[in-house]
């Protein structure tokens, strides 16, 4: 080996050799002699030791004074401390760590600040010295157990939420979604700690005198990896220092320098990069320390709070809700369901009758998000089954949540562990896809708040998966379609057993929109009994302004599918075959339909004969039908066909007449079919409508949302003792005041949840005067308008009442006497368009009179190159946009802008 020319002095160990510098270390010259000689020496000091690069100056100081100055070192685990190299007489060198007091006072407790090998610290520990769990003769250092933890109350939860927000602001943590992910990881680590280290908790900042950032993060990583493996079945790589150090046991010679270097690299890879607790982007030691400071604060925020409880804690639910609201972007139509709504929906279901069966019912939330519905159901079903002496865990085993977003699926599982509901199953996948554990027709209960308006969701399904939905045949463009909510309706029909119940939150538009939504309502009428519909206003879901309805459904429990039976009966009647009326005892249904339409049965059934009775065309609906289909696209196509020897004018009229009859028969068969299905709803549907006044909405829901800084989140409506004034507090669900349910007694018959439940049980409770402003009942056949020429099965939550107008004047149908057109505006970019002679009316000129001249006039070119339409003299003009209601009459042939409707044959409506 080559050696340096430098001589650093007499060896302090053997007192005879000289210290020289080699390639890897500083050694005694006697070390180079054979070991069996009397003068051999083992002194060796690596060029790098304990994370310190040894300099020539340090070596000379060590030899001359017996010790070096204190420097920053790292122990075998890579944790930093202040230490020095010191000669140990006759043996070599050793390491001495520093702990000394400085002239400083702790700003928190007034204790003395000391310097330890872990850094600066207060001499006072974070716990006392006389409690149980303190190790003997180890003052200030104790073992904490779960008995030291406390349940969080409403005030503390509020403080925790704002403390977390403050920490994030103080350290400029802008990535809220990432921060929420790390918070969930900490929750999981803490649950593992409370479960596996009940007598010696590790999720704790022990104080700077006994802890450091490296040890803290190492403990958290170990607990997190165990939690991911044991609770979520996922491997998370965790390697400790001992594993690395032990890998050198086969190296017998000159291992110190290599080992130190490898451990140093390991430390950098383990701590100086992003990991499961990186609130900040970490890629060096400085950023590690900045992130560790945040981590320490969040750990201290949570460390004294008990997370694992035996029932859902609404305060923890609210805390999670606040964190979710701030930490998860509610995109793709997601919005999280507040706990009062969750409790209302689940307590409205007939859980006792469902759980009476010997077989444990299967339950699913196919868009479970953070798991609120699952946790609340588990808690309520526990109350139900324990009354009969049953264990709750077998029922937990049959609860399934499905979530396609990984972060939320993890949150749902963490929530289950937090509430002692470990057996709840979370399936991480798209709920519209098949899964071995989600067999169709196997679930008795479905509760969900599925996403809505997600563009391109069908692209994520295979062609075979899309084909499993009837609705797919009505989708022309899978890329553009965003109506995911209707597919969740069909998915509910697939998953539920006959007689199974569902509570599904959906956008209100599901009841009224056309196209694919019409097909969704077909599925509802074919597959379900509609037990109740509860409308919630825009303030229900915080920042989300979407109006929603909750559909309380029961899968039709038919031995023979009534949807198929009624389809067959309608086809039979329309063929003029009434021979089976006595067999099925259903002739009264056809009579009821004819009565509803105000037409005699014989006249109506003649529609399906070769030549319908003339009386049918005197009926207003059938007159409107004839007018509609005589002027539709197909009729116009036929009318344009040329007359010749092979195709006469008479044949053309016959073809148009055949088209009209075919169209009317088709829509009437559909109407009659869905009338029968609506009529089969066993009870009138219970309708619950939220008030519209802001104050009334708050009283209806029992809560409101606050966005005021320092007071964010959900606030429950409670009743104060003094004067019974309404006050908004955070006392939680146990004291909430709402007509939806009684938090003290979910069986209280004076609240809406028990009213809904009674309709499920077929024993409806009469609507009390107290609830009459919210609740009413409507027969399903009265919710659907069967009297228009268009039929889309729209469901109205307001019962339609036919108004009879008595007048000496004729009462024509507007559709028969009006032809509505919309105007147009030539491009303003072409100023030459407005330099012509053709009258062009703007809204500002409409003042209820006759318009014979206009301020602006357009050219023939403007007419040709825009969508303006010529309006004949005498036409009524009505504005229909921001200036809606302004009217006028065209005193000459003219054109109008696009904000104006033109209504021909105005004699009847403009006097």
Automatic annotation (TrEMBL):
Keyword field contains DNA-binding: yes
Enzyme class (EC, first level): transferase
Record EC number: 2.1.1.72
Catalytic reaction annotation: a 2'-deoxyadenosine in DNA + S-adenosyl-L-methionine = an N(6)-methyl-2'-deoxyadenosine in DNA + S-adenosyl-L-homocysteine + H(+)
Cited SUPFAM superfamilies: DNA methylase specificity domain, S-adenosyl-L-methionine-dependent methyltransferases
Recorded family membership: Belongs to the type-I restriction system S methylase family. Belongs to the N(4)/N(6)-methyltransferase family.
Record protein name field: site-specific DNA-methyltransferase (adenine-specific)
Organism: Prevotella intermedia
């Amino acid at each position: 080996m080559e050696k340096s020319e430098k001589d650093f002095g007499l060896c302090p160990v053997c007192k005879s050799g000289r210290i020289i510098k080699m390639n890897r270390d500083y050694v005694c010259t006697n070390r180079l002699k054979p070991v069996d000689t009397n003068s051999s020496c083992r002194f060796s000091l690596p060029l790098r030791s304990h994370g310190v690069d040894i300099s020539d100056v340090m070596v000379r100081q060590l030899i001359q004074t017996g010790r070096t100055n204190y420097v920053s070192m790292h122990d075998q685990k890579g944790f930093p401390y202040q230490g020095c190299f010191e000669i140990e007489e006759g043996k070599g060198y050793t390491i001495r760590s520093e702990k000394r007091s400085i002239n400083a006072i702790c700003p928190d407790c007034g204790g003395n600040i000391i310097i330890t090998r872990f850094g600066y610290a207060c001499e006072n520990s974070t716990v006392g010295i006389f409690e149980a769990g303190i190790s003997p003769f180890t003052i200030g250092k104790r073992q904490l157990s779960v008995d030291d933890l406390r349940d969080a109350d409403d005030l503390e939860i509020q403080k925790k939420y704002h403390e977390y927000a403050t920490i994030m602001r103080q350290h400029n943590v802008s990535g809220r979604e990432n921060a929420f992910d790390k918070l969930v990881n900490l929750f999981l680590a803490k649950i593992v700690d409370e479960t596996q280290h009940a007598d010696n908790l590790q999720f704790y900042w022990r104080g700077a005198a006994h802890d450091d950032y490296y040890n803290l993060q190492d403990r958290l990583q170990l607990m997190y990896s165990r939690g991911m493996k044991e609770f979520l079945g996922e491997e998370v790589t965790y390697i400790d220092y001992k594993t690395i150090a032990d890998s050198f046991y086969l190296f017998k010679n000159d291992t110190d320098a290599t080992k130190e270097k490898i451990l140093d690299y390991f430390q950098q890879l383990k701590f100086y990069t992003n990991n499961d607790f990186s609130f900040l982007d970490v890629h060096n030691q400085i950023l590690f320390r900045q992130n560790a400071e945040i981590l320490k604060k969040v750990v201290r925020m949570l460390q004294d709070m008990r997370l694992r409880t035996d029932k859902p804690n609404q305060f923890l639910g609210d805390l999670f809700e606040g964190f979710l609201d701030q930490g998860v972007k509610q995109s793709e139509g997601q919005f999280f369901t507040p706990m009062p709504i969750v409790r209302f929906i689940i307590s409205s279901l007939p859980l006792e009758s469902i759980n009476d069966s010997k077989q444990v019912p299967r339950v699913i939330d196919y868009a479970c998000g953070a798991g609120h519905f699952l946790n609340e159901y588990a808690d309520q079903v526990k109350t139900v089954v324990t009354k009969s002496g049953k264990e709750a865990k077998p029922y937990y085993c049959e609860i399934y949540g499905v979530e396609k977003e990984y972060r939320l699926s993890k949150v749902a599982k963490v929530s289950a562990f937090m509430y002692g509901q470990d057996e709840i199953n979370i399936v991480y996948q798209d709920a519209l896809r098949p899964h071995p554990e989600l067999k169709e027709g196997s679930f008795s209960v479905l509760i969900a708040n599925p996403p809505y308006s997600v563009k391109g969701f069908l692209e994520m399904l295979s062609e075979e998966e899309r084909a499993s939905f009837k609705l797919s045949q009505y989708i022309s463009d899978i890329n553009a379609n965003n109506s995911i909510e209707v597919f969740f309706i069909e998915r509910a029909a697939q998953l539920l057993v006959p007689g199974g119940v569902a509570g599904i939150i959906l956008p209100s538009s599901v009841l009224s929109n056309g196209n694919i939504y019409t097909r969704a309502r077909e599925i509802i009428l074919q597959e379900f009994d509609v037990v109740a519909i509860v409308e919630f206003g825009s303030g229900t879901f915080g920042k989300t302004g979407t109006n929603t309805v909750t559909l309380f459904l029961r899968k039709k429990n038919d031995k023979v599918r009534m949807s198929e039976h009624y389809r067959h009966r309608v086809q039979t009647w329309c063929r003029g075959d009434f021979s089976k009326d006595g067999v099925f005892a259903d002739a009264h249904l056809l009579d009821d339909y004819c009565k509803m339409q105000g037409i005699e049965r014989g006249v109506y059934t003649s529609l399906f004969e070769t030549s319908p009775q003339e009386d049918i065309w005197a009926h207003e609906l059938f007159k409107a039908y004839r007018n509609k289909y005589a002027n539709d696209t197909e009729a116009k196509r036929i009318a344009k066909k040329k007359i010749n020897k092979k195709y006469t004018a008479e044949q053309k009229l016959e073809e148009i007449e055949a088209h009209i009859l075919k169209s009317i028969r088709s829509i009437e068969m559909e109407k009659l079919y869905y009338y029968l299905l609506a009529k089969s709803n066993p009870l009138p549907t219970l309708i619950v409508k939220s008030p519209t006044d802001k104050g009334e909405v708050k009283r209806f829901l029992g809560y409101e949302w606050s966005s005021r800084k320092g007071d964010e989140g959900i606030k429950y409506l409670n009743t104060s003792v003094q004067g019974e004034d309404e006050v908004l507090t955070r006392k939680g669900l146990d004291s909430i005041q709402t007509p939806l349910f009684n938090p003290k007694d979910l069986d209280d018959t004076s609240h809406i949840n028990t009213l809904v439940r009674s309709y499920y049980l077929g024993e409806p409770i009469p609507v009390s005067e107290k609830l009459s402003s919210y609740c009413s009942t409507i027969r399903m056949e009265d919710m659907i308008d069967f009297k228009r020429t268009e039929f889309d099965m729209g469901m109205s939550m307001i019962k339609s009442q036919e108004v009879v107008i008595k007048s000496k004047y004729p009462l024509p149908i507007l559709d028969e006497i009006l032809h509505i057109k919309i105007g147009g505006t030539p491009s303003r970019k072409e100023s030459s368009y407005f330099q012509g002679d053709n009258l062009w009316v703007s809204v500002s000129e409409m003042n209820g009179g006759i318009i014979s001249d206009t301020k602006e006039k357009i050219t023939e070119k403007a007419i040709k190159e825009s969508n303006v339409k010529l309006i004949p003299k005498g036409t009524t003009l009505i504005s229909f946009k921001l200036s809606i209601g302004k009217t006028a009459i065209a005193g000459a042939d003219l054109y109008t802008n696009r904000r104006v409707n033109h209504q021909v044959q105005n004699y009847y409506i403009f006097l």
